[in-house]
Amino acid sequence: MSTPLLRLPEQRPFYAIPPGYGLHRLSVPELSERSGEKALFDTLQVWEPRRKGHRYILGVDVGDGLGQDRSVCDIFRMGTIEECEEQVAQFITDSIPPRQFAGIIDVVGHLYAGPDGREALAGIECNNHGLSVQDTLQLHLGYRHFYIWEVLDQADPQKRWTTKMGWVTTARTRPILLDQLYTGVTTIDPLTGFSDCRINSPFTRDEMRDFRTDGALWEAEAAKGAHDDCIIAGGIAHYICWRLLGGETEPLADRRRRRQEEQARRLRLGERGPVDFRNTDATADELKSHEGLTAEEKQTQMEDDDEQLYYDPDSRGQAGTLY
User: Which helix (H) or strand (E) holds 102?
Assistant: First the structure.
């Protein structure tokens, strides 16, 4: 089955689709033939192609493929010190059966492979049809990079990661998912001016407008006749990004803000004149090591210090990875 790939806006650079994925670019005439709210269904919408050196997460909510419920595969680029997390692509369908939908996920996961060459980490909601999709991916398509279920109330950090794959939405996990997604999309990043979790999909935004509650956030649900599949898929992807980039350490969004504050502090100190151990958080030995360095060498040393703020998910136990 050949899956159409949405044509990117004219202002974006041309995206050469790698061969072997079964994708083709939709032309303007092909797009103009589509109409209605489902015009972009069964189409991979791309807002940003894969970028070298970045990690990607798939959040997947699986429907029955009978025209009632929707199946959604969201692709998120994990945030870094330099830029915030962003939704880069999305595939929506209400007609593809679950086992065939596994083929779509396999294509997208390989299209957005990570720096180590492995597929994007897939977080699939396994409440219903998702378990069938995950089983097909692993046993029949050879997919090998899945989210491993984490026990949040486990006292022993060594036992937090289970041997089970996928995400399960329950009365306990749904509030956590919605709370973290709400925080991500409503918190503004000071460096870019965008949300910590940047959402590009018009389908996701429409669902957010119809996602309501008269009480607590965890009680929110889609209005009558509306859907929440994009919200759940995006919520899973964002939650995994947040856990892998934060874990037991300082969350990435806080590190980014702290870095901006540190840069502003350095700028203020430079304007005040001489700097010594009495008006900075540096020791006398650290300041002495800067003596004799050129401005360019000092900048390089500061950038090296900033590099230490990065967090490598693969350095932490199983890190949600199944080999």
Answer: helix 98-111
